[in-house]
Specification:
36% helix; Elongation Factor Tu (Ef-tu), domain 3; Arc Repressor Mutant, subunit A; DNA polymerase, domain 1
Length: 623
């Protein structure tokens, strides 16, 4: 094919879409190769974005100038802020999306980028010279050249689908698997392994008796993911809760002898935190029921997704078990649940930029690295797209620190610790949760996006306005006094001790029962001040209140991040022969030589490298 591209992105899933958009918007001429233009950004599993820790990632992608948050806001049918009963470090936005609209909107976004081009084809191999990628070969016999390649193949590499005793090749139900590419990468020296994931049954919502289920509505005042002016959600669709029971479990057990999971046909490693229903009832045999989430697939469809009922059991077993769930007595199946096995490449073979160590200008992002989840894939995609553009233009790589973003935690975990099961982000993986909140992602990352060319002046102006308003509101709260007769009635409503003398408004906010929103009801001066901030008022109030209430925690984490960042600023040369440093433990020498950490900080996080080994390295560097 004539014409050379700067970057070729292979795969049109969540990682591929963010990668292609980022590289193209930074100025690269990008070709996105996908096997199906109608399945771009397909929500293969549940029709939702966000959730615990994942919602923070989507907000970070948005703050970096990505599109996952914007597309979600434009297509969501329900919004909920999870974990509101906990501290703000745990608050996580989650939205149900219209599955079909989500894919169409992503395609519209991509097609509106002038330097982004498309080809419907299957990539079967790489063109490499002197350990540097030069392009790709395709099933249609084309060789297409580029200066960098990003592989985002999802579950398609030698994918095999399992339902009961039936199994066949496929990357998704009804779609072909990718052949030859894994073998080509192995011939280049890459290590590969197998993983397994699954997806639940799809049901006909018309055959469900919702009166027997528990309704789960969206937030009264729905939020959004993007820090831009995306449209507000004015109407919402409800989700519902259902439960399995002992009869359901008994029927499911009748299919265990035909389960590909239990009889050993599935060799890949599955997710521990999101097991199939058969795995759940076996692993937690003492539990009499398991919660299920009935989630609508869109505005104008009766199809629903049964979250929590992932299965690869025979279809007749799935069907018979489903009809024993209360409310599902007459249910009809659109599509049974299924499992899928696929190839992935252990991510310790990557640098922090997601460029491979073995082949220059070749990047991996998404499930090819052993992760699971749209959000984790999209996060890797945008960083791979950014770094591919920077690499081919001779600019310094962009690597986010663990104290800067959940995305930094994600990538550092992958390249340092590797994976022994599909990797999913949790808040517990981050040491600096109070710094990495969903509300301040724009302050953490949008200035970087502006420097990269992914955020325009309007974004920076909006951020500066928000930051300025936070400063002004903070000053007002610390300098304005409130008298007992003004607030004691409000305090009594929350069972908070009354005042006996005037205090500053900020000191009142240290009480857990007191909020800025509540104080507005009795303090006209505060209400008037907030009104002047206009549409950004709610964001400003929320972040200002968090900063005041959790100031001590925030300061301690900032200090901890500062001290730990010192070891992340001590760089290790890639040429060090760790086997020659006899004072290191044997395991440390093996791990360090394989992973080749970039800094002392990264070395300290490698499993098997002890504090004593780090001391040896520091002595070695001083010498």
């Amino acid at each position: 094919m004539s014409g050379e591209y700067d970057v070729i992105v292979v795969g049109g899933g969540h990682a591929g879409c963010e990668a292609a958009a980022a590289a193209a918007r930074m100025g690269s001429r990008v070709l996105l190769i996908t096997m199906g233009m109608t399945t771009i950004a397909q929500m293969s599993c549940n029709p939702a974005m966000g959730g615990i820790a994942k919602g923070q990632i989507v907000r970070e992608i948005d703050a970096l100038g990505g599109f996952s948050g914007i597309v979600t806001d434009r297509t969501m049918i329900q919004f909920r802020m999870l974990n509101r009963s906990k501290g703000p470090a745990m608050w996580s936005p989650r939205a149900q999306s219209d599955r079909a609209l989500f894919s169409r909107e992503w395609r519209h976004v991509l097609e509106s980028i002038p330097t982004l081009f498309f080809r419907e084809d299957m990539v079967t191999g790489l063109v490499c010279t002197d350990h540097q990628v030069k392009g790709v070969t395709t099933q249609m016999g084309q060789t297409i050249y580029s200066r960098a390649v990003i592989l985002t193949n999802g579950t398609f590499l030698n994918g095999v689908i399992h339902i009961g005793e039936s199994h066949w090749e496929g990357g998704r139900i009804g779609e072909r698997a990718v052949r030859c590419l894994t073998e080509n990468l192995v011939s280049l020296g890459f290590e590969t392994d197998r993983m397994k994931t699954g997806t639940p049954v799809r049901l006909d919502g018309r055959t469900i008796d919702y009166s027997k289920l528990e309704e789960q509505k969206g937030d009264d005042v729905p939020g959004r993911f993007s820090f831009t002016d995306t449209p507000p959600l004015n109407r919402q669709r409800s989700c519902y809760l259902a439960w399995t029971n002992e009869k359901v479990h008994a029927v499911l057990r009748t299919g265990f002898d035909r389960s590909p999971l239990f009889v050993g046909r599935i060799k890949g490693i599955g997710p521990r935190y999101c097991p199939s229903i058969e795995d759940k009832i076996e692993r937690f045999s003492d539990k009499l029921s398991h919660q299920l989430f009935v989630e609508p697939e869109g505005w104008d469809t009766v199809e629903v997704y049964l979250n929590g009922f992932s299965s690869s059991l025979p279809e007749d077993v799935q069907y018979n078990a489903l009809r024993l769930i209360e409310g599902f007595e007459n249910v009809k199946i659109f599509r049974p649940g299924y499992a899928i096995e696929y190839d992935y490449f252990p991510p310790v073979q990557l640098q922090g930029s997601l460029e491979t160590k073995r082949i220059r200008h070749l990047f991996f992002a998404g499930q090819i690295n052993g992760t699971t989840g749209y959000e984790e894939a999209a996060a890797q995609g945008i960083m791979a797209g950014i770094n591919a553009h920077l690499r081919i233009n001779g600019q310094s790589e962009c690597i986010l620190k663990r104290s800067e973003a959940y995305i930094g935690v994600l990538i550092d975990d992958l390249i340092t610790k590797g994976v022994d099961e599909p990797y999913r982000m949790f808040t517990s993986r981050a040491e600096y949760r109070i710094l990495l909140r969903q509300d301040n992602a724009d302050q953490r990352l949008t200035p970087l996006a502006f420097r990269l060319g992914l955020a325009g002046p309007d974004r920076m102006q909006r951020l500066e306005q928000k930051t300025g308003n936070i400063g002004r509101l903070r000053k007002f709260l610390f300098t304005s006094s409130v008298a007992p007769d003004e607030v004691n009635a409000y305090l009594a409503l929350g069972n908070s001790a009354p005042l006996d003398q005037s205090v500053k408004m900020a000191s009142l906010l240290l009480r857990p029962q007191v909020s800025i929103q509540g104080l507005q009801s009795c303090l006209p001066s505060l209400r008037e001040f907030v009104q002047k901030m206009g549409s950004c008022g709610p964001e400003v109030m929320e972040e200002t209140e968090i900063m005041i209430k959790y100031e001590g925690y925030i300061s301690r984490e900032e200090e901890m991040a500062y001290h730990l960042s010192k070891v992340d600023d001590i760089f290790l040369k890639d040429t060090i022969d760790y086997h020659s440093i006899n004072a290191l433990s044997f395991e440390a020498r093996e791990k360090l030589n394989k992973i080749r950490p970039r800094t002392i900080g990264q070395a300290s996080r490698i499993p098997g490298v002890s504090p004593a080994d780090i001391s040896v390295l520091l002595v070695f560097l001083r010498r």
